[in-house]
Specification:
single chain, 256 residues, mainly alpha, 2 domains, two-stranded antiparallel ribbon, 10 helices, flat
Length: 256
């Protein structure tokens, strides 16, 4: 099976794609720090951050619909965590609701915290999706390694990216085998079969990991991430980094 949903648009020819991955990482971290440290009441600042992010998406030539669909996958997890904040945050009451014997009150302070979490999470998600979509995963890992990130973390990410597709294919083959051998049956039977499949998949993954580790050791693998190209900063990288720094500072201070 073919899986390209991570590196689907990483081969495009655009200004963002041609940037050094290390510059992209530094820009991402700086953008996240500026977004997270913004006051919840700075609505204009959040709008300007959003405009800047969408300008970068336009420069990357990645379809906005693709970025939007990716972001919708993560937003529900943010909502699950933040949806209860308006009901438990103490402060001035904005509204009261009753559901039978359950009485809930919403406070203005809770709504502000909810807005703060939601808007910062969504802007941060857009930044990270743009980075992951415009950069090959191998180059991203190489950038982490060059920036002295823990080698254990880069190795875990490397193997996760490489073999998650293998596990998905293995699970799909097992599911097809189950479907071809079972017709109808009670729901409990299918749940039991699924639990057995998960156990078998764990065992197969463990055995495959042992075989891969021994094969890599026999070929002299040293734990270093290797790519076909070496990173080298140029004038475009420095200009982009300087421009982003000036824009972030200008957006942060324009409210004042």
């Amino acid at each position: 099976m073919k899986h390209s949903f991570i590196d689907e648009y990483s081969d495009l020819d655009s200004l963002i794609h041609r940037l050094d991955p290390r510059v992209k990482l530094v820009t991402l971290v700086a953008s996240l720090l500026f977004i997270i440290s913004t006051r919840p009441t700075s609505f204009v600042t959040f709008v300007l951050y959003g405009i800047l992010i969408f300008i970068l998406i336009g420069l990357s030539k990645i379809p906005i619909g693709f970025i939007f669909k990716r972001s919708l996958v993560i937003i529900p997890f943010v909502l699950i965590i933040a949806i209860f904040i308006p009901f438990f945050k103490k402060g001035q009451v904005a509204g009261s609701y009753s559901f039978g014997s359950v009485h809930l009150t919403v406070t203005y302070e809770g709504l502000m915290v909810f807005w703060n979490v939601l808007v910062k999470a969504y802007l941060s998600i857009l930044c990270m999706i743009l980075l992951a979509t415009s950069t090959k995963f191998s180059n991203l890992l190489k950038a982490f390694e060059n920036m002295k990130c823990p080698k254990l973390m880069t190795m875990i990410l490397s193997f996760m990216h490489r073999y998650i597709y293998v596990l998905v294919d293995e699970m799909m083959r097992m599911k097809r085998a189950k479907d071809s051998r079972t017709v109808g049956g009670k729901r409990w039977f299918h749940v039991k079969a699924l639990s057995h499949m998960v156990g078998v998949l764990f065992i197969r993954a463990y055995e495959r990991g042992e075989r891969v580790y021994l094969a890599m050791c026999s070929r002299g693998f040293s734990g270093q991430i290797r790519t076909l190209q070496d990173f080298k900063l140029n004038k475009t990288d420095f200009c982009f980094l300087l421009t982003m720094a000036m824009l972030l500072i200008a957006i942060r201070t324009i409210r004042r």
